[in-house]
UniProtKB/TrEMBL annotation:
Signal peptide: none annotated. It holds the Pfam family LysR_substrate. SUPFAM superfamilies: Periplasmic binding protein-like II (SSF53850), Winged helix' DNA-binding domain (SSF46785). Belongs to the LysR transcriptional regulatory family. Residues 1-59 form the HTH lysR-type domain. The keyword Transcription applies. CDD domains: PBP2_CrgA_like (cd08422). This is LysR family transcriptional regulator. It comes from Modicisalibacter tunisiensis.
Length: 298
């Protein structure tokens, strides 16, 4: 069991790229993670990692052990899923990672409704604004805004994501309202730091993508912060409609250039395996998929 625990830590250290990040994902201390790797190396009689103050690199032996460790972890996950599937009712601890803005605005109602239906399931929601990271051992489902990089993870769409341009009435009283996406370059703008197209905002012109590079003196890595800065009248903001919906309803933001808005992909739920999903995970996945299909209009 000690070797198996150490193997899990080793795989997570390699995937995370550091002891600190791996320990945080696994819910253990950095020192404990380091001790487990050291004990594993002593037991095997080889060095698995070359450590420096700034980075970790696999040794030749470490690469071999890592590849086998990944397969072992997948087999364990499959075995656990099959064992759990024999239970008559979903039960256990479920951990869900979601982007901060979407999770904050939309995830609590379906999750609490799900928990009322399945009282034997406990749910922990992690709100994080990393654009994408692999689903690790401690997370059952990850909700992220696509498109996402190619990976081995399985995905299921929750809802379409459309990006649009917004500004506060106060800003529009001081600045000329843009009539075309190219007018944006002469305006102050608020930039979402985790946006996947980098320094460009994408619109649609005659069915073709039109990329605009805004003049952004303010960069915020959280959509809720971008919304608040836009409401304060600092400048134009390029936002998914789900993030701006409430502020528009309250009259705090005004939609602009709607004929040029661009469908940007989908909000996706990511998970490791379609075949070996535990009952608790499959039940939650099906529940929130149905919930958003019926209720969320973006």
């Amino acid at each position: 069991m000690a070797t198996l625990d150490a193997l899990k830590v080793f795989v997570e250290v390699v995937r995370a790229g550091s002891f600190t990040a791996a320990a945080r994902r696994l819910g253990i201390s950095k020192s404990l993670a380091s001790k487990r790797i050291a004990a594993l190396e002593e037991e095997l009689g080889v060095s698995l990692l070359n450590r420096s103050t700034r980075s970790l690199h696999l040794t030749e032996a470490g690469q071999i052990y890592y590849e086998h460790g990944l397969r072992i972890r997948e087999e364990l996950a499959a075995a656990e899923a099959q064992v759990q599937s024999v239970t008559a009712r979903p039960r256990g601890q479920l951990k869900v990672s979601a982007q901060v803005s979407f999770g904050f605005m939309y995830l609590a109602p379906p999750t609490t409704a799900f928990m009322r239906r399945y009282p034997d399931v406990a749910v922990e929601i992690l709100l994080e604004d990393q654009r994408f990271e692999p689903v690790d051992d401690s997370v059952d489902l990850t909700i992220r805004m696509g498109p996402l990089p190619a990976s081995s993870l399985v995905s299921r769409p929750l809802c379409k994501v459309v990006y649009g341009l917004y500004a506060a009435p106060d800003y529009l009283a001081r600045a000329e309202r843009p009539q075309h996406p190219r007018d944006i370059e002469s305006h102050d703008s608020i930039f979402y730091g985790n946006y996947d197209l980098g320094a460009h905002w994408r619109f649609s012109l005659n069915g073709q993508p039109l990329d605009i590079e805004p003049h952004s003196r303010l960069v915020i890595n959280n959509l809720l912060g971008v919304v608040e800065a836009a409401k304060a009248g600092f400048g134009l903001a390029y936002l998914p409609t789900f993030a701006a919906q409430s502020a528009v309803a309250e009259g705090e933001l005004v939609p602009l250039l709607q004929p040029y808005w661009n469908e940007h992909g989908s909000m996706l739920v990511l998970f490791r395996s379609r075949k070996y999903l535990p009952d608790k995970t499959r039940a939650y996945l099906d529940f929130i998929t149905d919930w958003f299909r019926e209720r969320l209009v973006l």
